[in-house]
Amino acid sequence: MDKQDAIARVEELHRLLNQYNYEYHVLDKPSVPDAEYDRLMQELIALEAQYPELKTKDSPSQRVGGQALDAFVKVQHHMPMLSLANAFNEGDLRDFDRRVRQEVGDVKYVCELKIDGLAVSLRYEDGYFVQGATRGDGLIGEDITENLKTIRSLPLRLKENVTVEVRGEAFMPKKSFEILNQQRSERGEELFANPRNAAAGSLRQLDPKVAASRNLDLFVYGLANAEELGIDSHSEALDYLHELGFKTNPERRVCANIDEVIQFVMSWHEKRAQLPYEIDGMVIKVDSFEQQEQLGATAKSPRWAIAYKFPAEEVVTKLIDIELSVGRTGVVTPTAILEPVRVAGTTVQRASLHNEDFIREKDIRLGDYVVVKKAGDIIPEVVNVLPERRTGEEQPFKMPTHCPECGSTLVRLDEEVALRCINPKCPAQIREGLIHFVSRNAMNIEGLGEKVIAQLFKEGLVQDVADLYTLTKEQLMNLERMGEKSATNLLNAIEASKENSLERLLFGLGIRHVGAKAAKILAQQFETMERLSQATKEELMAIHEIGEKMADSIVTYFAKPEAIELINELRSYGVNMAYKGPKAVNNADTDSYFAGKTIVLTGKLEKLSRNEAKEKIEQLGGKVTGSVSKNTDLVIAGADAGSKLTKAQQLNIEIWDEARFLQEIER
What we know:
Its cofactor is Mg(2+); Mn(2+). Residues 589-667 form the BRCT domain. This protein is of the alpha+beta class. It has five domains: 3-64, Helix Hairpins; 86-309, D-amino Acid Aminotransferase, Chain A, domain 1 (2-Layer Sandwich), CATH 3.30.470.30; 314-389, CATH 2.40.50.140; 427-572, 5' to 3' exonuclease, C-terminal subdomain (DNA polymerase, domain 1), CATH 1.10.150; 585-665, BRCT domain (Rossmann fold, 3-Layer(aba) Sandwich), CATH 3.40.50.10190. The protein is 36% helix and 20% strand. The strands form seven sheets. It has a five-stranded mixed beta sheet with strand order 2-11-10-3-9. The protein has a five-stranded antiparallel beta sheet with strand order 14-13-12-16-17. A four-stranded antiparallel beta sheet has the order 5-4-7-8. β21, α22 and β22 (623-625) form a beta-alpha-beta unit. The longest helix is centred in the first third of the chain and has 23 residues, at 3-25. It starts with a helix and ends with a helix.
């Protein structure tokens, strides 16, 4: 076959294989036998081997798994992937509805199944799949493009040449999970606890061929840039995604009110067991994008959506022992050691007992049969004991008077139920503090997991967080399962963490009562560690989100000589001590045109994403809202602006195009 014939045949094979793949994996209606599909695939692979220049990124042959990676590259999401707030009963759903209607009036909702998998972001340019990433911390994920290509329900090329960012859930069907664990059992390998862990583990394999062998699937559930495409609602976006060739979940419903939502949600309590994949609840979203924008979001979750979690499954097992652990703040936490039991899809051997009062109130004894459930289908906890099953051999449990790690006397602080070790040199607190410092929401040092930290601490290589920045390759290579390549990658990750913005360091230091959100607020307001360390209680409490307890804790922390010594040591190793994000609105340039104005963005901007434009406006003191009203000062209209532009014209509101906007912000 000459090259011209080969080109024509490859194009035809692309068309046929994409069609057959779509019919089988998306429509579930195959039109040809598997053998015919395999024959055509082998013909394509042979032609691509003969003419390598004909192998394209969207070729169906690319699904088998490409070359293994050295490491995953970090990806910043164009729009944040926020997590959802939870509802656990009908009352929670009605409270959510009440809050929504108070803000925006009557609404329609879209109800969807909450697939128990791994959230992913998919980017297409001119119809071609160019990048896929994990959710990560919601702002930054990992590039898993090659692994996602192995999912046959994911289109490598769309039916229209559009540029879109799509959100979805990659998952492992129940049948694939059973086959995988059976294979692992036969090879003597550790079994996956549940399909979600199996899916996540498969997509984070550096070798895409492993992911290709796991038979993963994908449902898409969101279009990040829908409004730029002239789409006004979530239900329309889902229909459009289906038209583009994506697999959307058919088990969804548009509901006119919360009563219809509750009826639909409750109908799935029993039906979920019949599905070929795991779900752990339902997602309820306000349908209108305009209303979604009006409702906005908190730092963690959108106000226009909520996840209803199914009631936790409860099982009975035997409590064998109670183990004690010391956290980074010195709190001593009891944990039940159980006879292994399956709960909500996973095998559970440990469960939370919270504190001494909880054990006493429940009258929990060693040897008791206990009822166990997963709180929110995630964290195992003991619900109650079954005293009728006692034999007389059960033993009451007494909390210790001294720290199980360092032997110091335990204390119970005022208004606290927890016993606490207050020895600042307690090894457990230091170890847990190190684990917190390197965690994802803090300094995010990849490769420094709990086991590595434990080894470093045991070998005396680190005594505090500053010691992490003195580690050498030779020291790391002496650790168990740490080769030269792993040691190099870890040192690179430690070095990269020096460039983190101030809020990550603040959270990582573990100042009591200062969570990730508070750390971001403090970093925005004070901008440098030096300014924050000198802040008075009054200055801190002048910030709306900072209360007296947190202010006291911050002042107390920076009054400690050892805290200042640690910060100075970190500074000497090159750790950044300044905030790198957008300035707080109340610190904005009050001389800017946008200061104090209410602005609406509509249509598609060419030079900036909507998120970037919003950030620029807020940096300059403006407020961006989702709907046009008599209180709107300015509308910035891009291409294909719709009803918002019309309303602005009717209300005689000032309107700028993108060029005028760029001119103003570049002054």
